Every structure is written in structure tokens, then in C-alpha cells.
Amino acid sequence: MYGNIEYSRVLTKTATFTTLIALGGWISIAIPFLPLVPFTLQTLFILLAAVVMKRYAVLPVGLFILLGLCNLPVFHNGTAGIGVLLGPTGGYIIGFLPAALIAGLFLEKRSVYAGIAGVALASLIIYAFGSAWLALSTGMPFAAAVMIGVIPYIPGDILKAAAALIIGKRVA
Length: 172
Known about the structure:
By secondary structure, this protein is mainly alpha-helical. It contains 8 helices and 2 strands; from the N terminus they run αββααααααα.
């Protein structure tokens, strides 16, 4: 362990991206006609972690979720605890973990098309987990959950995915 520079880099990037993901939750834009799901910058930093850290992006995302479960105010708008994961937005947070892994694995291919496919698939995974849990936790039909928890966020998520790819290539 002593003198292992790659281990030190992964540890430093994990701490940095965990902090950025948590800060992204504090940057929240409330959409008046959609009170259940806030618009945050967490997905930007999760995708950015995947671009920079590849498959190891699961480390900061997993640590972020663990810190939230330990009641540290890292989830959107400073919320924390198991109640957030069991609430309407919990599925999105749980979806962050497989999304980071899938995006990271695609981005290891070092192809522009694989990178675009990776961040697009990661966004779809977050949408799938989030809308499924939103429908289940609120009792609304799945189609309504998609209309509330996915459709309005697509333009912003496209911008965040593009920003993650552009910024990540400059940083990595």
C-alpha cells in the first residue's frame, strides 16, 4: 500500500467525487408543477466520475449512498437517512450505483461512441430505477411516474451528460 500511486489517485478521486455528488444535491432547482422529483446536479457529477474514474466510479457513488444512510445530509436539499431511500426519490438514488458502473465500463472502451452510449445508458438506468420506485412508492401508474419523473428532465440530463463527457475528457 505504501508508495502505490494508483491507490492514492483512486482514493483522492473517490473523496473528491463523493463531495461533488453531495454538493450537487444541494444545488437543487424546484420545478413548481413537479414537486416529487427535484432537479439536481448529482447526475452530472456521477457521470463525470464515470468519465474520469471508469469502473471505479462505483466507489464515490457507493460512499455517497452510505453517508446518506448514516444520516449525513448528502441527499438532495440536505436530506438524509433511510426514509429518503424509501421515499419517492429513493429509486433514483439507488439507480446511481448501477448507472456509474455501466457508464464506467462503457467508458473504458476509449471510443467516443462507447462513451456516449455509456452515459446515455446510465441515464436510462437512473430513469428506470427512479420511475419504477416512484410508481411503487406512490401507487401511481408506471406511465404517470415516467411522465412526472423522466420526461421533464430529459433536456437537462442531455446537457449534463454532454458536459460530463466534455469536462471529463479535459480532466482525465
